[in-house]
Amino acid sequence: MKNLTRRQFLKSGAISAAVVAAAPIPEIHASQSRIDNHLATLIDISRCIGCEACVDACQESNQDKFPKPVKPFPAMLPSRVPVEDWSDKQDVRNRLTPYNWLFIQHAVVQKDGQEMELTIPRRCMHCVNPPCVKLCPWGSAVQYPNGISQIDPELCLGGAKCKSVCPWKIPQRQTGAGLYLDILPSLAGNGLMNKCDRCYNRIADGKLPACIEVCPEQVQTIGPRSDIIRQAHELADSMNGYIYGETENGGTNSIYVSPVPFEALNRSIDKKTGQGRPHLKPVTDRMDQANNLAAAFLIAPIAGIASAIGRFYKLAKKQSHGEIS
Amino acid sequence: MIPSGMPDSGKSAHWTYRIVLFFLAVTGFAQMPIFKRYYIADIPGLGWLDQFYMTHFMHYLAAVFLIGLVCYHMTAYILLYRKQFRITPAGYVRGSVLAGLLVTGILMMIKNFPGYGYPSALIITLDVVHIVFTVTFLAASTWALAGKQKWLVNVS
Ligand code: SF4
Ligand code: SF4
Ligand code: SF4
Q1: Are B115 and A35 within 8 A, CB to CB?
Q2: What number is the ipTM of this complex?
């Protein structure tokens, strides 16, 4: 599979931008076309050789965005509040940290009776409906019209709710940096949350994300979601393979294609859930339960009005029977 | 609070309204990651307060009830009490703040659908206004309760 050329990439970006700009007041199918035009990546696991060039490129390219904590950290109350300090361990590469937004997971699996090792680039999945963004109580995270989600380092207080609600526990905290220092550092907040922002600044400049550009094996392809999904299915069909990320958490914009089932990969990888090493399990749509209540929001006023009218008629009837003067 | 000036509004509606408001306030504050930090979620029976998806769902559910109750009382006022009762200034204050809470809440709910998103500044504005309205509403309700300020006053 070939990466999109820069020209194709820009063209698709221009089309999605035009679609998004032309979208009027939100409507249901407009929202579907916005999702179809989200930027998504196809990650062909079978091509990855685990060289970690992408990991280096990500670190280099995003240096300026990494947190710069001030030490000593202000004491936080109560004492149970954890200090999370990665600033002296910026070279850790075998998991996600505030200074490492992409790492390579290793899995040893059986295929056709043979043992094989697969390497899997892992980072934020860029969910279509990202709970980290939608549930942030301060509005410190944002999803751009092109689908990219980003935690704003100017606004994040480090409460880590984004990590709690992320099905893969992706965002990583660095204590001692960010806005909380200027408010009530001992009582509220705890630093900055960090994760892959899909090199939104490079994309705005018409460049590819650093990890995609540098990869010698062209493991990743980026483009509008509907195209990427189609390509992922073609690729999966061609290798009798499997797909992850298309439906997980209601759909993500990172579509993995693997020659072996994801359950097998998930069994083999070092997960330590919540420890910066995300799983590969099936994930149901976490935002769905509450969003499904939408119908009830439409029915509630009708029910309220109807029962008041019912009461009005009951009283009127009683009155006409002389029961109430 | 809402129906407390209404002569024959059922006690059950009155209590439903209070319970719904209480749940809205608790589940609303639970959207901030504070209940765990400050040990409240450690109290037996309150562990659910740090389950964000649970409190989010319950906030929605309570809001459904609130909207139903508000529509019920507004309709009942128009049909049954308008001639006999007048809305008090305390009633107008709480009514306006409640309307503000509902509008900002519904706008935030729309944002939570897939494919919908607002610019950062709008999200922050909605968050802040929703919190400010909540605190105002709680203050106004406490003040009204203490001063026995009802929503309606009999004019006949
Ligand atoms: S640069 Fe490409 S081949 Fe190398 S580890 Fe990253 S994704 Fe795999
Ligand atoms: S994977 Fe986690 S951090 Fe990334 S968009 Fe989804 S919820 Fe947010
Ligand atoms: S898209 Fe950018 S920020 Fe995300 S993993 Fe790749 S290089 Fe890192």
Answers
A1: yes
A2: 0.86
Question: Is B72 close to A286, i.e. CB distance below 8 A?
Answer: no
Could you tell me the two tokens for A202? 């490079």
φ, ψ of residue A26 to 5 degrees: the values are -50, 130
Q: Residue B78, Cβ neighbours under 10 Å: how many?
A: 12
User: With a 6 A CB cut-off, is A152 part of the ligand 1 pocket?
Assistant: no
Tell me if A298 is assigned to some domain. Answer: no
> How many structural domains are present in chain A?
2
Position B156: which residue type?
Answer: S
- Optimal mutation site among B75, B83, B84, B108, interface A, most CBs of chain A within 10 A: B75
Which residue, A65, A39, A288, is CA-closest to A167?
A288
Residue A64 · residue A142 · CB < 8 Å: no
Please tell me the total count of domains within chain B: 1
Q: Domain residues for A212?
A: 31-288
Q: Do A7 and A148 belong together in one domain? A: no
Rg (CA), chain B: 17
Q: What is the mean pLDDT of residues A53-77?
A: 90
Decide if A294 is inside a domain. no
Task: State the pLDDT at residue B10.
Answer: 59
Please give the pLDDT value at position A28.
58
User: In whole angstroms, what is the distance from residue A131 CA to residue A92 CA?
Assistant: 27
β-strands A103-111, A39-44 pairing: unpaired
Ligand 2 atom 2: residue of nearest CA: A166
d(C-alpha B30, C-alpha B41), whole Å: 10
Domain contains B1: no
Whether residue A171 lies inside any domain: the answer is: yes
Taking CB atoms and an 8 Å limit, are B33 and A137 in contact across chains?
Answer: yes
Any CB–CB contact under 8 A between A138 and chain B?
A: yes
Contact A178, A200 (CB under 8 A): no
Closest Cα of chain B to A39: distance in Å?
13
Q: How many CB atoms lie within 10 A of CB A243?
A: 18
pLDDT in tens, B17-35: 889 999 999 999 888 887 7
Domain that holds residue B39: 11-154
A240-263 residue pLDDT tens: 999 999 999 999 999 999 999 999
The reply to whether A290 touches chain B by the CB within 8 Å rule is yes
Q: Chain B partners of A250 at a C-beta cutoff of 8 Å? A: 114
Between CA B4 and CA B7 the distance in angstroms is 8
Pick among A293, A315, A319 to test the B interface (most B CBs inside 10 A): A293
